[in-house]
Every structure is written in C-alpha cells, then in structure tokens.
Amino acid sequence: MSQLPVITPELLHRYNRPGPRYTSYPTVPAWADGFTTADYVQALGQVAQQPDEPLALYVHLPFCVERCHYCGCNATVTRHAHVVDTYLDRLEREVELVLAHVGHGRRVVEMHWGGGTPNFLDNAQTRRLHGFLARHFAFDPRAELSVEVDPRIASPEQFAVYHALGFQRVSLGVQDFDPAVQQAIGRIQPEAQTYASYAACRELGFESINLDLVYGLPEQNEATFRRTLERIIALAPDRIATFAYAHVPWVRTNQKYVDVTHLPDAPTRMRLLHMAIELLEAAGYIWIGLDHFALPDDDLAIALQERRLHRNFMGYTARRIPHVLAFGMSAIGDLADTYVQNDAKLGSYQKAVDAGQLPVVRGHRLTTDDRLRRLAINHLMCNLELPESLSLPEFGGTLSDLLPDPMAQMETFIEEGWLTVDGERLQVTTLGQFFLRNIAMAFDAYFDPAESKPLFSRTV
Ligand code: SF4
User: Measuring CA to CA, which of 40, 47, 293, 366 is 20 to 30 A from 155?
Assistant: First the structure.
C-alpha cells in the first residue's frame, strides 16, 4: 500500500469536469444516427458465423417498488407482480427473435441480471426466467452467473433460489448507511437488512459478494461516510464498488428531488473518495481502475495483475467475452464490433416485441478508428497503462503512429505526474488514477467538453 498523493484544490479546479466513465467507446450519446434493425440483424449474422465463440448474456429487469431520488438506472415502478409475468412473456419472445438470427443452443459463459431490481421477481418468476434461458442457450458448466439484489426486499429463500440455479456472484446495493443520507436520497435501508442479506449469501457459500457504495450523495460528509466504510470493511466482502454520484436531473427527472444545496462540493467529494481508497487499501483491498476494489485473491485483482482486465456496460470484468447479447427494455448489447440498445420505454419495448420486431432503437457500428481508440481507452481504464507498441496487425502501426494527437497530449499528463514512461509503456501513477477519465478523454474523438447540459458525472 502506497501513500496516497495529495490532490491540491488548484489541480481539482483545473481538471474536475463532467466526463464519461467509458463503459463503452464511443459512449452512448455519441452513437451514430440512422442505426436500424437491419444493422442489428447484420451484427447478429456475424455472431452466427462464429458458432464456436462463447456468449455473455445481459438481462435487464427494470422493476422497483419505488424510485430512489438519486437513481440513474432505467427503472419502472410497480406494485403488481402480474406486470412481471407480462414482461417475461416479452423477454422470452425477444430471445426467440434474436436466436432466429444467431441460432439456438449457443454456449454461454457469463450471464448478468441487472436492473431495476432483479429480485423484484418472485421465486417462481426467477425460475421461469432462468428456465427459458437455459432452454434456449447451452450454459457452460463453469459459466459465471451474477445478479444485482436490493437487500430491502430480499429474503433468504430468494438467495437460496439464485444459488440453486447456479448464480455464484451477488451484488448488494448499499450506497450509504447514514440515515440522513438515506432520507435525502429517498432510499431507507436499515443496516440490519444489508447485514441479513450479506449473512444469507455467506451462509449459502456464494463465491463472490460485491457491495455497492456511492459517494457524492446529499448530506454525505467524511465522518458519516467513514462510518459506512468501516462497517462495510468489517463484513469483508470480496468486492466493493464506490461509484461517483452523477447529478443530471435533465436526464433523470427523479433526481429533481435531490436537494442540490445539500450535495457535497468538489473538494469534499475528493476527500470522500480519497478516504475510501485509504481505508480500503489499508484493509487489504486492491484499487481496480476507476471505482472498484477487490481482495487480492479475487478474479478482478488477479486479472489486473495479469493485465487482462476488461470493461463493459456492467463495469470491470476478469475476462473478455467477444459478444454480449442483451435482452429487455433499455438493455445494451455489444457484439461483432456493434453496440445496440433496446427501447427504454416499457410500453414501446413490449409493443415492438409483440409485433415480432427486434426492439432495438439505437446502436453504433464501430469504425476502425473507433476500435483503435476503444483499445487505448480500455487499456487505460483497465490495465492502467498505454503501451506505445500497442498495435494489432489490422491497425498497421503503433499508437503514436496512428493517434499522434492524443499521444502528444500525454506529454501534459507526464508533466502533471499522472503518467510515467517505462520503456515502451506509459504507466498510470496513483495520482493519475484519480484522473483516469481525464486521460481517457484525450482519446475520445466525440466528447464535447463544452456541452452545457452534461450527461456525465464529474471526473473526480
Ligand atoms: S436505485 Fe436501484 S432500487 Fe432505486 S430506483 Fe434505481 S434501480 Fe430501483
């Protein structure tokens, strides 16, 4: 564990600006206009031509019992279980529509259920969803299955069902234990509920438990966040994520209930992050990329050490699966160098599927330049380095040959002490890790820093 650098107010002032988290490149707002279903079908056709390539699946389950003020997800509030049954009908139909192009029985090595709140589904609905996916795909016996769980509505029986179905990874939403913060974000979650969920998962023997925290929330201060962190560390989860709160009420209207006068200012946000890193590293966690922490024997920490970490819409992952098929409202897929996103409105998503149409509304086919920049950004965000010799035969050169302008900008970051030169490699320093998004932005050909209504959180 190294001594963390001091981030001066001046440095913060110069570089703290809205910027993407780069779970994709290009980021969703930059995707090209005019993407059509035919483009998606073409990408699916390419997947079909590689029948031995394994697949990853993402399933979006959007339902929640109420909308948290801070939420940035595509979620739908309902109290009615039958709405889920109707949604599952459409999900299965969507799977059939996609598989008509890809072929049945494809091998799946990874699956993630996200939301919304996947555990809004009752046990019969969970079994039904898993059942029809297992009928349509061939799950590898060692496939990694993961699910996001809201402890407020979780039960030991639910966890037992996930475990029996083969889920080994659980991610529990916590955000912050402090009652004033919970009140301010419209999410009351007594600590006991989180502890009960955590204990149930440990008792069942899940391989990996992740806890999600958020910093930059209203009412948060160093004293209260320290207390949350200490309690989380005492549980010793395998992974901890500390996401930066992005206040963008012009995109997420539910955030208008967040009182901006109670949001921590930039220096406080930095102190919260700084403290989180300090406490987590002192407890033995490895800082992964932007906002993840993992125990040294966790897959993510090992993948970082072996420089084979990857990043996708779910965050960091220990292996790269060439194609991610995504199902459900607003779900984002990544296949055959093409991103696709489904309709984010429940009604129109279901209507499209009922009409026998793929419910895709936007997408982006990566150009050669996009793929090269994505490679550089992923290297930075995951492996904290930029090999000068990073090249693939198809690109026909090194990064400096092919992207001279962004590579020239790296000189500034070397002067700032964010990068060091190590042979042919530019290595991100600990100081640079705080500004990872700023470094990555130099490679982004689409990002407009002058955007008056930013879509992204601030970089630190
Ligand atoms: S934060 Fe989670 S539980 Fe709250 S509304 Fe969003 S998706 Fe639902």
Answer: 293
* Distance separating alpha carbons of residues 434 and 421, to the nearest angstrom: 18
3-class SS shares of the chain: helix, strand, coil, % to 5: 40, 20, 35
Q: How many domains in the chain? A: 2
CATH of the domain at 161: 3.80.30.20
Residue closest via CA to ligand 1's atom 1 equals: 71
Q: Which atom of ligand 1 is found nearest the CA of 152?
A: 3
Residue range(s) defining the domain that contains residue 137: 29-365
Judgement on whether residues 393 and 360 belong to the same structural domain of the protein: no
Same domain, 334 and 386: no
Q: How far apart are CA 379 and CA 386, in angstroms?
A: 6
Same domain, yes or no: 6 and 55:
no
- The model's pLDDT over 274-329, given as tens digits with 9 standing for 90+, comes to 999 999 999 999 999 999 999 999 999 999 999 889 998 888 999 889 999 999 99
Q: Clarify whether residues 16 and 129 are in a common domain.
A: no
Q: What is the mean pLDDT of residues 423-449?
A: 92
189 Cα: distance to centroid of ligand 1 (angstroms):
12
Q: 370: Cβ below 6 Å to ligand 1?
A: no
State which ligand 1 atom lies nearest to the alpha carbon of 254: 5
**Terminal-to-terminal C-alpha distance of the chain:** 21
282 and 327 share one domain: yes
For ligand 1, atom 6: residue with the closest CA: 71
Is the CB of 68 inside a 6 Å radius of any atom of ligand 1? yes
- pLDDT classification of 459: cutoffs 50, 70, 90: low
Confidence of residue 251 (pLDDT cuts 50, 70, 90): confident
Judging by DSSP bridges, how do beta strands 138-149 and 169-175 pair with one another? parallel
The verdict on 216 and 349 lying in the same domain is yes
- The answer to whether residue 453 scores a pLDDT higher than 70 is no
Q: Summarize pLDDT for 174-197 with one digit per residue, the tens.
A: 999 999 999 999 999 999 999 999
Q: Tell whether the model's pLDDT for residue 1 goes beyond 70.
A: no
Show which of 365, 387, 406 is a domain's final residue. Answer: 365
Q: How far is CA 153 from the centre of its chain?
A: 22
By CB atoms closer than 10 A (0-12, 13-18, 19+), residue 98 is: buried
pLDDT category, 52, cuts 50, 70, 90?
Answer: very high
Tell whether 178 and 224 lie within a shared domain: yes
Helix axes 191-204, 222-235, angle to 10 degrees: 20
Between CA 166 and CA 172, with CA 169 as vertex, the angle to 5 degrees is 130
| pTM exceeding 0.90 | yes
Of 365, 392, 413, which residue is a domain's last?
Answer: 365
Counting Cβ atoms within 10 Å, is residue 159 exposed (0-12), middle (13-18) or buried (19+)?
buried
